[in-house]
Amino acid sequence: MLRHIKRIRVRFALWTAGLILVLLVAFGAFVYYRVAQGLTDAVDEALILSASQTLAALNVENGVITLAEDFPEVDNQSIEMIERGLTVRVLDAADRTVQLFGPQRRLPPPSQPTGAIAPTFQTSAGGASPAGGASSVRVLSTPVLEDGVRVGTVQTAATLATVEETLARLLTALFIGGAVLTVIAALGGYALAARALQPIDQMTRTARRISAEDLSARLDLPATDDEVGRLAVTFDEMLERLDESFRRERQFTANASHELRTPLAAMQAILGVVRAQPRTAAEYEAAIDDLADEAERLHTLVDRLLYLARRDAQRSDVHKPVDLTFLLADIVDSLEPLAAQKGIALTLRTPSKLLVQGDSDSLARLLVNLLDNAIKYTEEGGVSVSAASHADGVTVTVSDTGVGVAAEHLPHLFDRFYRADAARTTRGAGLGLAIAYDIAQAHGGDITVSSQLGKGAAFTVHLPG
Predict the structure, then answer these.
(1) How far, CA to CA in Å, does 357 sit from each of 28, 101, 126, 323, 354?
(2) Dihedrals φ, ψ of 137, to 5°?
(3) Which of 368, 366, 377 is nearest to 332 (CA)?
(4) Please, is 37 exposed, middle or buried when counting C-beta atoms within 10 Å of its C-beta (0-12, 13-18, 19+)?
(5) For residue 113, which of 80, 153, 162, 173 has the smallest C-alpha distance?
(6) Thinking of the domain 227-312, which architecture would CATH place it in?
(7) Residue 463, SS3?
(8) For residue 322, what are the β-bridge partners?
(9) Contact criterion met (CB below 8 Å) for 327 and 302
(10) CB neighbours of 41 closer than 8 A, spacing ≥ 6?
């Protein structure tokens, strides 16, 4: 039972039923009070009218109340009061009955204090109802005055049996109607909650089917502009991102395995050839040089893989002010021999002092990767580096006059292990640009590239100021 109560739709139904019940109780109490007041006011008005008619039929002389002969039979108004079930009693100054007519034979004494001249109402039990049972009686006591002094009292009374019966029927209707409406509200709330939460149930079933091996499941619910609809869209978008992330991780693992296997296979092949038969000292020296090259390639690849793994695990860098002018000059000086070795020019144009917020080591790796990539694919001409400050940040552009990149390769240049031209003889793992792009994003910026095949390329780094 408790397990079912914990379900949202059941709790929603209970809350709806409870709210409707509270509202119905408040509304029923208001209606009951207003009807009871209205019916009582109608009885009081009849009693006041009857008292006025009776007072008009009385004679008061020297403090003595006298009645017309055969009163009230000869009085049409009094006969009419009797037919309406009203009772009239006339009392003298000592509250002794002078005259009494009507169905109520036992009326309470006037509740007025001695000397009071204002009419008063009172309700007493034990009255006779038209149906023969007992009911409450409403009594109006009106003083009879002579020269401002009370000389007697006229009491008019009426049974409240009709009022009580009407109120009892109203109360029964309110109880039955309230119970029925509460049940209907509970069932309706449960149905509405079940309908509204149906996408949530579908999300739960979909989430249970999802695993790391298969993230293709989607909700594909009809688009609705409400909270649940937006949640379903967000859930599908999350699954899409997870699917893409797992796909890229699997691709990354496969590519990393392939790239690691290549130098290892080359090293095994070199060792196999050397060990097949005795070699000369020159041949052993050449084999060792080849092994050193492959080991260096393997070391570089592992170093970059470790960097990417650390960046994926922890994206937050401590950002401090970095003098980009000084950093660029230092990097260009360190790579100048590499450019001179290939016979190409390496130029730098920067403002006198260009500050950015970032991690100097990461920014140095970014710029080194871009410059190394530009020098690697430039055989003649030169590589130029320029930096500029703008209202929204700083840009650093590395352009070259190298082989360029075809248009179809541009969207994938920053993918890990992507090589724009498989026929190139230059050695690399396709991680340099991916690392550069990752560092730029970690600093809140990005990298854009423009290139034409055979006319060089230009990489522009955008960093916030």
Answers:
(1) 69, 106, 95, 9, 10
(2) -125, 135
(3) 368
(4) exposed
(5) 153
(6) Orthogonal Bundle (1.10)
(7) strand
(8) 356
(9) no
(10) none
Question: Which tokens belong to 173?
Answer: 């209707």
- Rounded to the nearest angstrom, the gap between the alpha carbon of residue 113 and the centroid of all alpha carbons in its chain is 67
Query: Sign of torsion, CA 113 114 117 119?
Result: positive
Q: Tokens in use for 385?
A: 């580096």
Contact of 130 with 101, CB cutoff 8 Å: no
pLDDT tens-digit readout, 254-291: 666 766 776 787 788 888 888 888 888 888 888 888 88
Give start and end residues of each alpha helix (H) in 314-387. 324-342, 360-376
Q: Please, are residues 135 and 158 in contact by the beta-carbon 8 Å criterion?
A: no
The segment(s) of the chain belonging to CATH 3.30.450 are 2-167
Q: How confident is the model at residue 424 (pLDDT cuts 50, 70, 90)?
A: very low
Q: Which of the following CATH numbers is that of domain 319-463: 3.30.565.10, 3.30.56.10, 3.55.40.10, 3.30.2130.30?
A: 3.30.565.10
Phi, psi of 117 (to 5 degrees): -120, 0
The residue type at 301: L
Architecture per CATH, 2-167: 2-Layer Sandwich (3.30)
176: tokens are 């039955």
Tell me the pTM: 0.49
Question: Which strands, in side-by-side order, build the sheet including 97-101?
Answer: 97-101, 86-92, 149-159, 134-146, 120-128
Q: Which two tokens stand for residue 22?
A: 């509270």
